[in-house]
Amino acid sequence: MASRKTFNLVLPILLMNCFVQLGQCGRPHNAEEREDLVTATCKHTLHFQVCISSLRSVPGSSKTSDLKVLAEIALNLTTTYAADTLSYVYQLQSSSASNGSNNNYVSRCLSDCVEEYSEAIENLHHSKHALANGDCDRVDTLVSAAMSDAETCEDGFKDMQSEDSEYSNSPLTERNRYFSQLCSNALAISKLLV
Ligand SMILES: *[C@@H]1O[C@H](CO)[C@@H](O)[C@H](O)[C@H]1NC(C)=O
Ligand SMILES: *[C@@H]1O[C@H](CO)[C@@H](O)[C@H](O)[C@H]1NC(C)=O
């Protein structure tokens, strides 16, 4: 019974998809070719879904047919995320201060992360100039540096883990990971320009 029910639901959806896809193939719309550039480009990255969803969040990405513009958008997204993470770290600092928590390890780690992310933002700003000048090697160096800045931030908490089991988890693991993925994708996209 259950499987027939599923089948009854699935078949119309499949048919609908076919028509939608046929409709798309029939229309020689530029917007779709341009959308393909995002997909085609993201296929060269290690984190495809992150690539697709981040690039698609910027309206300009579907309007361009220029890979260099996509690379710039990727760097912009990465920079914005770094800045956003930096202000999140400031929030963590002030909430742990107002909670009267005087855990030295945590506050030292958070201060380190402020430094690391400030440096990452600077590196990423420079990388945009390098991209504009067509210096892809320098883009590579700077974005790799930004990526390792986030790793250093995360590693601080890992080192703390062995010293103080009470504060064993980094509050920044998810953000550090996502930031690294954005960096990795931006690197892969700018390498396509070489
Ligand atoms: C990247 O960000 C800069 C500064 O915010 C902006 O001027 C530029 O238009 C952005 N580039 C793209 C391709 O969106
Ligand atoms: C500070 O306290 C608030 C509310 O009690 C809590 O949500 C927050 O996670 C605490 N911050 C830290 C860093 O412990």
From TrEMBL:
Gene3D superfamilies assigned: Invertase/pectin methylesterase inhibitor family protein
Keyword RNA-binding: no
InterPro entries the UniProt entry points to: Invertase/methylesterase_inhib, PCW_Enzyme_Inhibitor, Pectinesterase_inhib_dom
Molecular function via GO: enzyme inhibitor activity; pectinesterase activity
This protein's record includes keyword Signal: yes
Annotated ranges, domain Pectinesterase inhibitor: 33-189
Annotated EC: 3.1.1.11
Key words, A-Z: Disulfide bond, Hydrolase, Signal
SUPFAM superfamilies assigned: Plant invertase/pectin methylesterase inhibitor (SSF101148)
First and last residue of the signal peptide: 1-25
Family: Belongs to the PMEI family.
NCBIfam families noted in UniProt: PME_inhib
Protein name per the record: Invertase inhibitor
